[in-house]
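Quick one: structure tokens for this chain, please?
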Amino acid sequence: MKYSELADAECAIAQALGVVGEWWTLLIVRDVAGGFHRFEELHAELGVSRRILSERLAALVEHGVLARRPYCEHPPRCEYHLTPMGQGLLPVLVSLQNWASRYVLGDGSLTATARPRSAEAQRVRHLIGTKIPEMTLIDTAGTPRDPVSDEDWTVIYCFPGAYAQPEGYPAGWGAIPGVPGCTLESATYRDRMSDFTARGARVYGVSTQRPEDQEAFATRQRLPFPLLSDQELRLAAGLRLPTFRAAGSDWLKRGTLLAGSDREIRGVLYPIPDPAGSVDDALALLDRQRTGRHAS
């Protein structure tokens, strides 16, 4: 019998820990969200013993956090995918990452950026060579859309947030380091769109804002490309993207990903000290990849 069944029966925190409180459990959820669905993939990624992994996976399936999906009949094999209950844990993962980045790895200050040699910046650079998990985000037309396009290249620029009207911004928003410049960055992508199109690249902007707020901003700025809402934090959790918490919500820190049509991340820009200048940097990154030169 679990501790949560013996005591604190009315405490939701204690009951939650009875399901996901063991060391490996949230790491398994983290990696399944990141696109690792098969036992051998999870075993290689986590480095945990096969017995412990089997036990934790079975427990997560029993509790309804994961669901098994067969992919091979002979011999029988299955993949593990997050259920809606499991998807509900993604904000928990993001909150834990926020807390650790700010208070364990950082000095406790609220910021929407990072130092170039920080552990956070190194983690983002290590995304090169990984693949963007299968998912859909809601675009400004209210349509589910894959964040990786069907073009040869996809440029995904993540930004904290931008609103059509000044009163849409949370109080004190502009005083957070790394936040100012979202409108300028989007407008610069707009003005340089022909340069990306000529290179066979599609541009998506991503924030955690509601789709209706993104739609109003995109209309006001006449953006010729979709903005995608990561309101449910699927992309943030799946790639462990840098985020910060302000005004009671989680926001993406500014960064840019370059992905190929195979979903592999070929280049990253993080941190970004100059929002408008990052558009030229994204074009340079794209050119280096198109000519076969290393980019990071």
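The mean pLDDT is 93.
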